[in-house]
């Protein structure tokens, strides 16, 4: 009887602890706990990497602007062809070194269709965003390009099952508000220009930003499941051929004019280097952070663009620019106050890498072994059936 009473008391204590656990956890989360991400090296890795990628985007924007203003060159497909080709050569060569020809070909057989779609989306995203600047105003293009961030959040919610907290939505809104401050500063400085065809340009920009969102989330999805050299090499392989076909159809004249201008070639080489670094490090950012953090980090590229523009294009700095930069960084920090949400599919680690290697390199051998075992089982069954038929005959004799 005493034992039963003790057992009941213990059960009541456990139940009370279970009921008050969430309240206790909430009460214990102090300001120090909220700012724990500031002591996490991963936060600074993501922050620095994001700003490096933003500098790369700035380099591509500056070279594209210089090509348009100084050389009257506007051919987005021609610009990106060398980028895709160099990435495909470097990363597919490394994939062949790591996996051999057979393993490299198996990548195409098993996942080629996904990389083909990803490459096509990326090519057309680049094309429509650059094209939009020829038709719509600078203000509209900058505003509409921010649409890629909500697209990434929506796709991550449905495709990768990421569940955001309310404060992370607040961080995104604050970062986008910082971008709005940069745009307002540009308008006050008179950097906007008239739109040739606002509706057409705005639609191009919205379509390009949407395609960017799909491309970023698709690349993050593949980067969390497969090695980076496979992801970058495979989708740029298909993107190179898609880009080349589009170039021959739409930009043959621009390509011939570009080939005869060595100064323009130099600017395109700088553009290619910036894009090569961007495409190489973006999947790393997707693993450490997410496609959403990638897009938030790129919002600061206008601030860096101003620094380059002071010397190259005679831009003037305004007081709003430093404040806007701080606001964007603050939005990224607020996004980290709660632990950043992890996708339900997990991330690429040593266990995933080993599973990937076994499935890719030994899958064919496993299938052969299974087929041999099945053949042996069939032979044994036939042999046993023959033995059962012969034995009774011998007995009757």
What does this structure look like?
By secondary structure, the protein is mainly α. It folds into 2 domains: 38-343, no CATH class; 349-382. 83% of the residues lie in helices and 0% in strands. It contains 16 helices and no strands. The chain has helices spanning 2-28, 31-34, 41-71, 76-135, 138-145, 148-159, 166-188, 198-223, 228-250, 252-259, 262-288, 291-297, 301-312, 320-335, 350-361, 363-396. Helix 4 packs across helix 11. The longest helix is centred in the first third of the chain and has 60 residues, at 76-135. The protein starts with a helix and ends with a helix.
Please indicate the count of domains.
2
Q: Summarize the biggest pleated sheet.
A: none
Separation, N- and C-terminal Cα atoms: 78 Å
Integer-rounded radius of gyration: 29 Å
Low-pLDDT windows of residues: 11-27, 378-382, 387-397
SS field, number of helical segments: 16
Helix vs. strand class = mainly alpha
Note the overall shape.
Answer: globular
List how many beta strands DSSP finds: 0
The average pLDDT value, as a whole number, equals: 80
Give the helices and strands as they follow along the chain.
HHHHHHHHHHHHHHHH
Q: Helical proportion?
A: over 70%
* Strand residues, percent: under 5%
């Amino acid at each position: 009887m005493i034992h039963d009473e003790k057992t009941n008391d213990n059960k009541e204590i456990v139940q009370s602890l279970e009921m008050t656990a969430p309240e206790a956890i909430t009460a214990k989360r102090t300001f120090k706990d909220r700012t724990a991400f500031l002591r996490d090296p991963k936060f600074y890795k993501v922050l620095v990497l994001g700003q490096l990628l933003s500098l790369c985007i700035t380099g591509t924007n500056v070279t594209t602007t210089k090509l348009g203003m100084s050389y009257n060159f506007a051919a987005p497909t021609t610009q990106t062809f060398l980028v895709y080709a160099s990435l495909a050569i470097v990363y597919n060569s490394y994939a062949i070194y790591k996996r051999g020809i057979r393993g490299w070909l198996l990548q195409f057989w098993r996942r080629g269709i996904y990389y083909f779609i990803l490459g096509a989306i990326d090519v057309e995203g680049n094309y429509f965003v650059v094209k939009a600047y020829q038709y719509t105003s600078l203000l509209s293009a900058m505003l509409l390009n921010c649409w890629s961030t909500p697209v990434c959040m929506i796709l991550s919610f449905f495709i990768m099952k990421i569940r955001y907290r309310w404060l992370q939505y607040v961080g995104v809104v604050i970062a986008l508000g910082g971008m709005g401050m940069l745009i307002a500063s540009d308008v006050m400085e008179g950097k906007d220009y008239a739109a040739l065809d606002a509706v057409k340009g705005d639609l191009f920009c919205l379509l390009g930003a949407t395609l960017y969102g799909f491309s970023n989330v698709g690349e993050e999805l593949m980067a969390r499941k497969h090695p980076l050299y496979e992801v970058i090499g495979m989708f740029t392989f298909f993107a190179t051929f898609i880009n080349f076909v589009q170039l021959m159809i739409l930009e043959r004249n621009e390509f011939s004019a570009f080939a005869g201008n060595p100064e323009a070639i130099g600017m395109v080489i700088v553009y290619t280097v910036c894009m090569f670094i961007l495409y190489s490090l973006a999947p790393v950012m997707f693993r450490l952070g997410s496609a959403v953090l990638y897009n938030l980090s790129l919002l600061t590229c206008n601030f860096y663009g101003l620094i380059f523009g002071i010397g190259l294009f005679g831009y003037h700095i305004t007081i709003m620019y430093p404040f806007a930069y701080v606001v964007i960084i603050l939005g990224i920090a607020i996004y980290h106050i709660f632990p950043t949400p992890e996708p339900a599919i997990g991330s690429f680690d040593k266990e995933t890498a080993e599973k990937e290697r076994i499935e890719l390199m030994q899958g064919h051998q496993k299938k052969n072994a299974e087929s041999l075992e099945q053949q042996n089982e069939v032979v044994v069954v036939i042999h046993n059936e023959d033995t059962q038929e012969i034995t009774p005959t011998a007995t009757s004799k």
